[in-house]
Amino acid sequence: MKSSAPYRTGQRLPLEAPNGAGETIQLRLSVNPRARRISIRIDARAGEAVAIAPSERRLSEAVAFARSKAGWIAERLEARVEGQPLEPGQIILLHGLETRLEATGTNGAARLTADGVGPVIRSGGEGEAFARRVENLLKREARTQLVARTEVHLKALGQRPVKVSVVDTRSRWGSCSPHNRSIRYSWRMVMAPPAVLDYLAAHEVAHLVHADHSPAYWSVVHGLVGDHRPFRAWLKANGQALHAVGR
Fold first, then answer.
1. YgjP-like metallopeptidase domain location, by residue (predicted)?
2. Tens digit of pLDDT for each residue in 24-39?
3. What angle do CA 136, 140, 142 make, to 5 degrees?
4. What's the order of all strands across the beta sheet hosting 163-167?
């Protein structure tokens, strides 16, 4: 496709991998009006790269940038973590701790307990039924923790209540819509250490004060959780593994 051809958000393009074997990489185009520059994001779950531009008229620049980074994109996609099914015997993270999944041989709901080794989630059901029960428990745990920490940070900033939704996003850990006072979180944050989950709640609540990522915004975040860099680093290092759970 010629560089002068029109592009649109959501469009997918083949990107030739720089390995000389004729392999292609899937590239998805996206527009984010809040973005300050052209960027590339790896969507590990979808197995594709996302080129992000501040406006649709700059998507051609995003495509050119992605082509110049084809080698880096190929390496990141190749290194992505394989899916980790929710099945008996698996070890997943819960609140940052390794947690074993066990089958009870019944039809009962999943329960969080512990033994001499550490946390255990025991659940009834087989196959998809087992996985669904475990995921439902994780979502309940996530909602409890995220709502609680959101309320703490709302109170600290003197903010009114917001509507909290816990969903399964493709890549983002959370998002805030100040105009309708709603915050969406990924349930997968329940697998992160409590301090990282708390940082995410502070991150989204701070957007009620500043909708951008300006120095003033980060000052609000710092006032809530202190130095945020270790928490962001943890998510960057472990994010792909969290998104692989249950896939």
1. 37-237
2. 788 999 999 888 899 9
3. 115
4. 163-167, 182-186, 174-177
